[in-house]
Structure formats: C-alpha cells, structure tokens
Design brief:
Radius of gyration: 19 Å
Number of helices: 14
Strand content: 15-25%
Distance between the termini: 7 Å
Order of helices and strands: EHHHHHEHHEHEEHEHEEHHEHEH
Structural class: alpha/beta
Shape: globular
Length: 314
C-alpha cells in the first residue's frame, strides 16, 4: 500500500481565479468560500475569483485566500476517498495541513491566518525588511555568512531551506544585501531578490509572534488525527499544546522544507499530493528525491488525472 502525504502551498502560489471553476461546479466547494467571507466579514471570494492580483497578493488577503482554496480543493479530493497518512505545508501551508489533519477548524484557521498576515505586515516598517533566494550554496556556508553579517549589526538569517541548493534568507534590507554579496563570494551561483512585504521567518518577526499568542489562545486547537510534519522541527506532531507552541515559533524560525520531505520519505511516504494552486512544492519534492511520485491538484482535470493514476497504482 502506498503511503500518502498531502502537502499544501504557502504564500506566493496565489493566482486570480484559483478554485473558481470547482466552486462553480460543486456547492460543497463554494461553501468554503462563503464561510471564509462570513468569518472575515469581507468578500474575500471576490478578490480570489476576480482579483485584482495586487489586492490578492497582499499578505492579509493571500494567506486566507490560499488556505480557503486549498481546503476547497481538498474537499473534492477526500470526497473521492483519498486519505493521507501525513500532512505538511510550507509556512502558511502548515495551517492548511493542520485543518486537513483535524487539529484546527476551517473558520478558525481562516481567521487565524488573516490575523497572522496583519501581524507579519506590522512587525517591521514597510521597506525595512526583505528576503532573497540563494542558489547553489549549502546551508552551513550560508549560515556562516548570515551569522557574520548579523554580528556586524545587520540582522539576517536562513528563512526557507527549500531543497538542496535553494535557500531563502531574510532580514533587514542592508543585512540581506550584504549577505547576498558575501554568498556570491562564497560560491553561490545566483542570488534572486524576492518581492515580499517583509522579512518573514526571521528574528525580526518576534513582535508578530508575541501578538499572535492571543489569537491562538482564542481558537480551538485539538490533537491532530494524522501526524503533521512541523516546519520548525521537520518532525511529526499531533499534540495540541505542541502544535500551538510550534505555530508561534514558526513565525520567526526557518521553514525546514527539505528536512520535512526527507522525514516523510523516512516514514515510508512514496506519494506526495500537492493540494492547492501551483506546483511549487511538487518541484521541491522532486529536487529532494526525483524518484518519488508527486501530483498537484488545482482543478477538476488535475483531480481526475490524480485519482486515475492512484487507482492504476493500487
């Protein structure tokens, strides 16, 4: 029997019109967008389905929009009888993973990630923090670079350890600029500045984490029904108290995505199903292990292709 992991994309995968086709075909799918609108008291569904892209990309919209779309698509997948042995998500996607695992209710999660987005935006004044993708340099030499720059008074650190040779750094604008130059000197093939609104997953997000505690205190978090691989530790978690603690730490800690994929492989997972817009995580999984089976579901056509492939493998 195959062991399946559902994986959920994070911020950056949003596109105008995501989920619209499925919502038009299936009332159960549309209900997720309606519930999100009601819980946030705003027409989030209009922004998702019609845009504009600039409005959808705003952190406070992108986070609940991606979670809603991922859960709506997941509803179609599970309706076909497909279940997961493990779940995981990249940054924001961890909340989708927790909803899928039964640890957080959908409406609570939508509210939580909207507040998460607000706090992340407010933690560092606009224009003072940024991120960059460093290609072709290992985590140890890159950490030496970021530690050196931080020691010089310009905070910067590893933010997303995505796959071999792809690591995102995050910090002050000056810190990221200096670390980018030193990374090239240390052998990085390329450094790509990212269009982001803040230095996410860096120590500069600690003020957001402090505010965020009260939000997590206000919602119901239950023990997960299937293990979720946590971003912070790349280890399975099911207990509600540990889930809560790790969600707070996640705001200012690196996303251990490469290690998450390695952990799932170690646990016997041989099939990764990316649930939500885009194929970013499927690509990263393949860069960790190209032999593993990956599927990405964004619409009815990709859903049916995946179901057919799973049946043929069974």
């Amino acid at each position: 029997m195959s062991k399946i992991a559902f994986i959920f994309p994070g911020q950056g995968s949003q596109t105008v019109g995501m989920g619209k086709e499925l919502a038009g075909q299936y009332p159960d799918v549309q209900s997720y967008f309606n519930k999100a609108d009601d819980r946030l008291d705003t027409k989030l569904s209009t922004i998702i389905f019609e845009g504009p892209q600039e409005e959808l990309t705003q952190t406070t919209n992108a986070q609940p929009a991606l979670l809603t779309t991922s859960m709506a698509i997941l509803d179609r997948l599970t309706a076909q009888g497909v279940t997961a042995d493990y779940t995981a998500g990249h940054s924001l996607g961890e909340y989708s993973a927790l909803v899928a695992a039964g640890a957080i209710g959908f409406e609570d999660a939508v509210y939580t990630v909207r507040k998460r987005g607000e706090f992340m935006e407010e933690a560092v004044p606009s224009g003072e923090g940024t991120m960059a993708a460093v290609l072709g340099l290992g985590r140890e030499p890159l950490k030496e670079v970021t530690d050196l720059v931080t020691d010089e008074g310009h905070p910067v650190g590893l933010a997303n350890l995505n796959c071999p040779g792809q690591i995102v750094i995050s910090g002050t604008v000056r810190g990221v600029e200096m670390a980018s130059e030193k990374a090239k000197e240390a052998g990085a093939k390329r450094v790509i500045p990212l269009q982001v609104s803040g230095p996410f997953h860096s120590q500069l997000m600690k003020p957001a984490a402090e505010q965020f505690v009260s939000i997590l205190d206000s919602i119901t978090i239950k023990d997960a029904e299937v293990p979720v691989i946590a971003n912070v530790t790349a280890e399975p978690v099911t207990g509600r108290e540990e889930i809560k603690r790790l969600l707070i730490e996640q705001l200012y800690s690196p996303v251990q995505w490469e290690d998450t994929v390695e952990k799932l492989l170690e646990l016997g997972v041989d099939t990764f199903i990316e649930v939500g817009p885009g194929k970013v995580l499927s690509g990263l999984v393949k860069k960790v292990n190209r032999r593993v089976k990956t599927y990405a579901i964004q619409d009815e056509a990709s859903l049916q292709q995946t179901i057919q492939a799973l049946k043929e493998e069974a």
